[in-house]
Amino acid sequence: MGASLLALDWGTTNLRAVLLDQRGRPLAERHQAAGILQVPDRNFEQVLLSLCGDWLQDRSIAIIASGMIGSRQGWVEAPYLTAPITPTAAAQALTRIPLQDDRTVYLVPGVSRAVLDSVDHIDDVMRGEETQVWGADLEPGSIVVLPGTHSKWIQCGAAGSIDHFRTWMTGELFAVLSQHSILGRLMEPGDPSEEAFTLGVQRTLAAPEALSTLLFSVRTAGLMSRIAPSALSDYLSGLLIGAEVASALPRFSAQPEAGQLQLIGEPSLCNRYARALALAGVKAESLAPGLAARGAWRLACAAGLISEISI
Amino acid sequence: MGASLLALDWGTTNLRAVLLDQRGRPLAERHQAAGILQVPDRNFEQVLLSLCGDWLQDRSIAIIASGMIGSRQGWVEAPYLTAPITPTAAAQALTRIPLQDDRTVYLVPGVSRAVLDSVDHIDDVMRGEETQVWGADLEPGSIVVLPGTHSKWIQCGAAGSIDHFRTWMTGELFAVLSQHSILGRLMEPGDPSEEAFTLGVQRTLAAPEALSTLLFSVRTAGLMSRIAPSALSDYLSGLLIGAEVASALPRFSAQPEAGQLQLIGEPSLCNRYARALALAGVKAESLAPGLAARGAWRLACAAGLISEISI
Lengths: 311, 311
Hints:
2 copies of one chain form a homodimer. In chain A, strands 3-2-1-4-7-6 form a 6-stranded mixed sheet, covered by helices on one side. Helix content of chain A is 32%, strand content 22%. In chain A, a hairpin with an 8-residue loop joins β8 and β9. Chain A has a domain at 3-137 and 291-302: 2-keto-3-deoxy-galactonokinase, substrate binding domain (Nucleotidyltransferase, domain 5), CATH 3.30.420.300. By secondary structure, chain A is α/β, with parallel strands linked by helices. The first copy, chain A, has 10 helices and 14 strands.
């Protein structure tokens, strides 16, 4: 069976291209460290052709892209759709980019929400995570966590709708504090320390409002030799993930039922989140990888870019 | 009246030298961007002589130094004393550094504490702030806040004792997030925005446990044009200071009585803290500058390095 869709998951630091057949099964996959901020002169078409030009000799293949490629810093800005939003509605709102050979790249819109509740009155946005969630085809009421630079918690409704979501800065806080603050000074590489990670999680689960002072304990735990230099990075990771879990759980339908909370992302990071959630008394299961391509394929079908062949 | 003491406030980024007479009044002051991390080959004696050599022609002048100069990365490590600690006790524990001309530099010890309470079980440390507090000569029960890179909250007891203290990473979080994270991308310089600062404070006062997700709203408030690019930095500052105030107040003797909370530090930063504290219903007053030299003079008197002349 021939290829029918090229699905691009094009983020800030990486481009991942997956070629899919007419049943949505992956035929081949390629990666490149060609995130949108690394592309010279924003010549995205050249990057696409250099990575996937041979595949695109077959002019029947449709092309769809999700992620930060649709942001203001990307190829073309694909407007945000406001949550709640179903994949069917998103498929009707793809942004078209004409290529030089008259082909078209279809960009998946981002999703935004404005919340005016009693506690917080803020906007939130996502680009790319919605496509992964749609690839997972979750039950109504599901809560999904996508750990990463900007960790997302997403609550799903009927017909695959993304009803509600929120972002935590956990991954980026970990990176900038490790690399650019005094907290990284005493850190040394070494084997992961589950004990230090657990200690960090327990401390912010018990006092999430004290994150900014508990962070300083990464410094003092090193100074006073309470935690080994090789374990300080796990301790910091635990503090940040614990604070995220403690503040996210009450914002997402009290305590989700056991097994209802799902994790999407890099396996070792999902494992950290599963451990932190278990310490908070919540079970979570990690979903299989490859969801971005699967979600792109669903959107392409709903948009009529390709015809799904049933088995 | 001649000079009797050279007081050095020697931190990570700056060296401030104050010459005092026998009544502890400042005669002259010099600054240099010669923080301990900027001194080549850790040749601190050379930096001292180059900045103050002319003053030190008078061999009767004693020399005392406080701050990060007494840390492991400084001149010589001055051991921490454990809180509660009085200035009288600290004066008995100065660390001596012999200079090449047989003179001595006396280092003020740092202060540490280990807390094992129901919520947090962490160590904390300070170097330099203790000397400023001792310069302020505060009433027992006073609570002092020293905003900065590592903001300190200090509770005083009898005889100038530092009974209890705690550090918040507020200033360093502001710096690394502005300079190295996505939050700085949309920021532009401009006049201070009291409105954006207040909004940030209100949000974290209402939900301090949500700091890591509210931080992402600096990004989205810029993206969605809710806050002007020139005001985003004030909004971030408000979020961080509000989170500090919200988590510090319950840890420092419930709500201090009106007027009891004191601020020591750079005036515009103290002004921000006073505004954030006012939003939390707490009054604060800023103390006059020059406290590090005054505290060093008190310690030098208590240590018998100089004889105080009464007026």
